[in-house]
Specification:
Layout (H helix, E strand, L loop, with lengths): L3 H4 L70 H18 L10 H13 L3 H20 L1 H10 L1 H6 L3 H20 L1 H4 L10 H15 L2
Helix pairs in contact: 2-3, 4-7, 4-9, 7-9
Amino acid sequence: PGQEDYLKDCHGNLPFDVTAPGLQDRSVYPRYNQSQPPVEIVQEAGEIVFIPSEWHHQVYNLEDTISINHNWVNGCNVAIMWCFLQDELAAVQREINEWKDPMDDWHLQCQLIMKSCTGIDYKEFYNFLKVIAENRISILENGLDDEASAKNTPKAAISTLGMLHAVFDLKRTVKVLTSLSANEDFKKLDLTSLSPPPEALLHHLKAAIDTALL
C-alpha cells in the first residue's frame, strides 16, 4: 500500500502497465525510482487470490480465462469505501461545475453520474450501511443462540460472526454513518424515503453497542 503514489505520472495518473519501460522516464514519472519492484504471482485454475484494500494491482491473462471477482467490504475498510465515494463525487462535481447554477437538480445529477461510475450513490450507501447494521444487531440480540447452534453445525460455525466481531463492525458503521449524516452533499438530497431516518438508525446502533458491552 502506498506504492501506487510512486507510480503516478506528473498528472497524477497511474500507468496501465507497471512494468512498462516508459516508467523510467523521470520527466513523466518523477517518483518511479522510489517504488519497490512489483510482486508477481501465477494464479492457477481453481485458486483464489485475496487482494487487500488499497493494493494497486494488474492482471495478465496467460490464456483464455473466466475470472470471477468480488469486492469485499467490512468494518475494516468501510471507511475507505466512504472516502472513495466522496472523492468520486468531488470529481464529478468538478467536471460539471459550470452547470451548477443553471441546473436545478445539479446535486441529484452529480449523484446519478457518480452512480454510473461506481454503481452506488449516497442514499444507496446509507441503505448498505443499514443492512449491515441490522445484520450485526441481529447477531448481538441472538448471539448466544447463534453461537450454540454454530457449535452443533460445522457449516454455521464457519459463517457465523462472533459477538466481538459484530460490535467491531457496528462501531465502524457508527463512525461512517455519523460522517455521512453530517455530509453537506448528503443533506442536500431528499432523505424522506430513508427508513429509518439516519438519526434514528444512529441512536439504535449506539444503544445496541452499549447493551452488548454491559
